[in-house]
Specification:
The chain has 727 residues and is an alpha+beta fold. Helices cover 40% and strands 14% of the residues. Strands 3, 4, 5, 6, 7 and 8 form a six-stranded antiparallel sheet that branches.
C-alpha cells in the first residue's frame, strides 16, 4: 500500500528505509551525462499535468518552496539511511534548492545527474570500505550498539563519522550470520558477495533510473499516491508491483535490509501454506528440492523477486523468520510449489461459529463471511455470462444460506481487504441496506457525485458486524463507513488504513500521439471519497465502535504515515436512513468484551505478540553483544515452545507451524500429499481469537437487545431491519 519513491535500491547490509519501487536494470551501461530530449519533454509534460487543477486533485504551484521539497525528497531517495552523503556533500547541493522548479519546467533537469554523480562516487567508496573490514574480525563481548534507525539522524559530519557507522553496520551483519550458525570464512564470503552485488547494482543503473527517481521526488511532493513511471516501468507495472511474487501468491516490500511479506494473495500457494503471513522476513531462497540456499539479506527487491518467481509446478524453498521473532532467530524453511492463483480460492468464504450459552443467554450461531477483496470478472460480465465472478453475488448466496440455517447474526470479515471494484463495494453494501447513498466522490474540479445502491430490498436484515483492521483500505472503508453511518451494524477491530483517494493512470504519449511509448505514464490522484454522512475516509480511516488493541501504530502503517497525505475533511451529508444508534450499548459491550478476553488464552497471546512486536519496532538500535542477542532469541523460542505445550494441555487448536513440520524439522513439502493435507487442515483450524471475539460481541448485542425492550427502542428505531435485530 505504501507507494514508493526510492528507485535506486541498493543491496546493503545497512538498515535503509528502502521502499517498494523496482528499477529497470541495464546491461552494465552507466547513466548518461544528462537528460535526453525525450526526458526533457517528459519533464515539461509532467509539470503541466501536476500543476493543472483540471487533472490533479490537489495541484501545487512549482515554486522555490516546492523546489526545496523536491531536493529533500531526491536526497532521501538516493540515501534514505544517510549512510553515503556527508553534511558537506549536502551543503554543496544547496545551490540547487531554488533551481529545481525552473529545471523541471524547462526540461533541463541536469542537476539530477550532477547529484547522482556524487552519490555514485560516495556509495562506491563506502562499499569498498565495508569490504575491507571483512579482512579482520570483531569483538562481540562489548556493550556496543548499532543505531540502525537514521531517519531523523543528522547527516554524518565527515568521512570519519561514516566509517564509524559502517563499522557498526558490518559488525551487525557479521553477528547475524554468526548467530545463524555460519563459520567465519563463510561469513566473509557471504558478506563480500553481498557488498559486491551493491557495486554491480550501481554500475547497472541507467539514465532512465536517475530520471524516474528525480521526477518521483517531484511527484511525491504533490501527494503520496502520485508517481511517474518510465515507458519500461509502465509496461512492467502490473508484473513488478501488483504481482511481485508471481508464482507463490504474495507481495514483497523491503524494510531495513531485509525483504518481507507485505500481502498474502488469497488462493495462492503462500496462503494455502497456512504458515506465511504479512511481516514475515525472507532471509534465503533456494530452487527446487535441493538447490543452493542463497542468502538474500540486503538484496535488491527485484533480484529477490526473480529468485522466487518461476513456472507453475516448480518448487521454491524459503528461509523465513516470523514477524514477531528477532531477526537472529533460526528461520523456518518452507517449500512451496509455484502455481497461478486460482480465482475460486481468492473468493469469499463462509463459515459458522457456535458460541456456548453465557450471561444468561442461550447458545448462539454466528455466520462469518470472509471477503479478501472486492472482485469482479469484468470481461465475463460484459459478455452477459450468468455465472461471472462477483463478490456481491458470492456473498448474497452465503447470506441466503445463513437465512436458511437461521443463524443469529453475521460477521463480515474485511481484515486485510485492500479494496477492489468500487461498483462491487456499492452493490455489496446494498445487500444490507434498502437503497440509498453508499459513497460520495469529489473530483478534481470540485464536482461531487453520489453513488447509490438502487436495488430495493436486502439480502440480510438481521444482526450484523463488520470486522476490520489497519489493512482494510479503500473499498473496505467505503463499506464499513456506510454500514456505520446507516447504523446498520457494529464495526469491530482496528482503525482502518485511511486511503480515501482515487488514482488514475495518465499516458503521457496520448498528447503527441506517439506510435511507440516515449514519455511514460503518471499515476495521478483525481478524486476523493466521502461517506454518506459527509466525512472522508481519507487519513483518519473508519474508527470502530468496539476496538481491539492496535496491531500496528498509526505512525508506522497507514495513510497517516505520509508527511503530505491529503487531510481529513468533510462535505455535506447525503440524505440517508438511520437504522440504529449503538452508542447506548457500547459501554456494556466493551465491558463484557474485556471480561471475556481476560480469560481467553489465545486472545491474550495475541495481545502479548502485538505488544512485543510494537516494542521491537520502536527500537532505534540493536545490541552488538553476542550474549545479549542470543538471550533475546532464546527467549522467543522458549515462549513459542511453551505455547505449543500449553495448547496441547488445554486442548486448543494447534499452531500450524507445529503441525506442518516434516520429520527433519522443515516445513511440509507439497510433494508429500499426506503432509500437505495435514498442513492445510492445520491452517484451517489455526486459532483466530479476533474473529471468535467479534462473533461473541455480536452475540452479546443480540442478547442485550432481545432482553431489554427499552434499550432496543433506544438503540434501534422502528424499522423492518430493527425488528429482526430483536426477534
Amino acid at each position: 500500500m505504501k507507494p514508493t519513491r526510492t528507485l535506486l535500491v541498493l543491496t546493503l547490509g545497512l538498515a535503509l528505509a528502502t521502499p517498494l519501487a523496482l528499477l529497470a536494470r541495464a546491461d552494465g551501461a552507466l547513466p548518461a551525462a544528462g537528460p535526453t530530449p525525450d526526458q526533457a519533454t517528459t519533464s515539461r509534460l509532467v509539470y503541466g499535468l501536476l500543476s493543472d487543477s483540471r487533472y490533479a486533485y490537489r495541484p501545487r504551484a512549482l515554486d522555490d518552496a516546492l523546489s526545496r521539497d523536491v531536493l529533500k525528497r531526491y536526497l532521501e531517495a538516493l540515501d534514505p539511511g544517510k549512510v553515503f552523503f556527508t553534511a558537506q556533500d549536502v551543503a554543496g547541493f544547496a545551490k540547487y534548492q531554488d533551481r529545481l522548479d525552473d529545471a523541471i519546467k524547462s526540461g533541463d533537469v541536469a542537476p539530477a545527474w550532477a547529484i547522482f554523480s556524487v552519490y555514485r562516487q560516495r556509495a562506491n567508496e563506502r562499499l569498498a570500505y565495508a569490504r575491507g573490514l571483512l579482512k579482520g574480525g570483531f569483538d562481540f563481548t562489548s556493550a556496543d550498539r548499532y543505531a540502525f534507525d537514521r531517519k531523523d539522524a543528522p547527516w554524518a559530519a565527515d568521512g570519519a563519522a561514516l566509517d564509524a557507522l559502517w563499522r557498526q553496520s558490518v559488525k551487525n551483519d557479521w553477528l547475524r550470520l554468526k548467530l545463524a550458525g555460519k563459520q567465519p570464512d563463510e561469513i566473509r564470503k557471504t558478506l563480500d558477495k553481498r557488498y559486491a552485488n551493491s557495486v554491480d547494482d550501481i554500475a547497472q543503473l541507467k539514465g532512465e533510473d536517475v530520471f524516474q527517481s528525480f521526477l518521483n521526488a517531484y511527484a511525491g511532493a504533490i501527494d503520496p499516491h502520485t508517481d511517474y513511471l518510465t515507458p519500461r516501468s509502465a509496461e512492467n507495472f502490473n508484473l513488478t508491483i501488483s504481482n511481485s511474487l508471481e508464482g507463490i501468491g504474495a507481495v514483497l516490500q523491503r524494510q531495513d535490509d531485509v525483504v518481507l511479506i507485505r500481502e498474502i494473495v488469497p488462493g495462492g500457494p503462500a496462503a494455502r501454506s497456512g504458515v506465511l503471513k504479512p511481516g514475515d522476513r525472507i532471509t534465503a531462497v533456494g530452487q527446487g528440492a535441493s538447490g543452493e540456499m542463497k542468502d538474500v539479506v540486503g538484496w535488491r527487491i527485484d533480484d529477490v523477486v526473480q529468485l522466487i518467481r518461476g513456472p507453475a509446478a516448480s518448487k521454491v524453498r524459503l528461509d523465513v523468520v516470523a514477524a514477531e521473532a528477532p531477526l537472529d532467530s533460526k528461520p523456518n524453511r518452507l517449500v512451496l510449489t509455484r502455481a497461478k492463483v486460482r480465482l475460486e480460492d481468492a473468493r469469499a468464504k463462509a463459515e459458522t461459529i457456535t458460541l456456548p450459552a453465557a450471561n444468561g443467554q442461550p447458545a448462539r450461531r454466528i455466520g462469518v463471511v470472509k471477503l479478501p477483496g472486492f472482485y469482479q470478472d469484468f470481461e465475463a460480465r460484459r459478455r452477459n455470462e450468468d455465472d461471472y465472478a462477483s463478490a456481491t453475488k458470492d456473498v448474497a448466496k452465503m447470506l441466503a444460506q445463513f437465512r436458511a440455517q437461521k443463524v443469529d447474526g453475521v460477521v463480515l470479515d474485511l481484515r486485510n481487504n485492500g479494496g477492489g471494484s468500487l461498483g462491487e463495494a456499492i452493490e455489496l453494501t446494498g445487500l444490507f441496506i434498502d437503497q440509498g447513498p453508499v459513497v460520495q466522490v469529489r473530483e478534481s474540479g470540485g464536482r461531487v457525485s453520489v453513488e447509490d445502491d438502487r436495488d430495493a430490498g436486502v439480502a440480510w436484515d438481521g444482526p450484523l458486524a463488520v470486522l476490520v483492521n489497519r489493512g482494510s483500505a479503500s473499498a473496505s472503508e467505503i463499506v464499513a463507513g456506510a454500514i456505520q453511518d446507516y447504523g446498520r451494524g457494529l464495526v469491530i477491530g482496528e482503525t482502518t488504513f485511511g486511503k480515501g483517494t482515487v488514482q488514475n493512470m495518465v499516458d503521457l504519449d496520448r498528447w503527441p500521439a506517439n506510435e511507440k511509448p516515449r514519455f511514460g505514464q503518471v499515476k495521478l490522484t483525481i478524486a476523493q471519497f466521502f461517506r454518506p454522512d459527509g466525512s472522508s475516509t481519507q487519513n483518519k480511516g473508519v474508527v470502530p465502535d468496539v476496538s481491539f488493541p492496535a496491531s500496528v501504530d498509526a505512525s508506522e502503517f497507514g495513510e497517516s504515515t505520509y508527511d503530505n497525505a491529503l487531510p481529513w475533511t468533510r462535505i455535506a451529508a447525503a440524505p440517508h436512513v438511520r437504522y440504529g444508534n449503538f452508542g447506548a450499548m457500547l459501554g456494556t459491550l466493551g465491558a463484557r468484551h474485556q471480561a471475556r478476553v481476560a480469560k481467553d488464552v489465545e486472545f491474550q497471546w495475541w495481545v502479548e505478540d502485538v505488544r512485543t512486536f510494537r516494542e521491537e519496532n520502536a527500537k532505534k538500535s540493536v545490541s552488538l553483544n553476542e550474549a545479549e542477542r542470543r538471550a533475546e532469541r532464546d527467549k522467543f523460542d522458549a515462549r513459542r515452545k511453551q505455547r505449543i505445550a500449553e495448547r496441547e494441555k488445554l486442548g486448543l487448536a494447534r499452531d500450524p507451524l507445529a503441525d506442518a513440520r516434516n520429520d527433519d524439522g522443515l516445513l511440509a513439502d507439497e510433494r508429500d500429499v499426506a503432509k500437505d493435507a495435514a498442513r492445510d487442515q492445520a491452517a484451517k483450524n489455526a486459532p483466530d481469537p479476533l474473529l471468535h471475539e467479534s462473533a461473541a460481541i455480536l452475540a452479546d448485542a443480540v442478547g442485550l437487545l432481545g432482553a431489554d425492550a427499552k434499550l432496543a427502542a433506544q438503540v434501534l428505531p422502528e424499522s423492518r431491519t430493527a425488528a429482526h435485530w430483536v426477534d
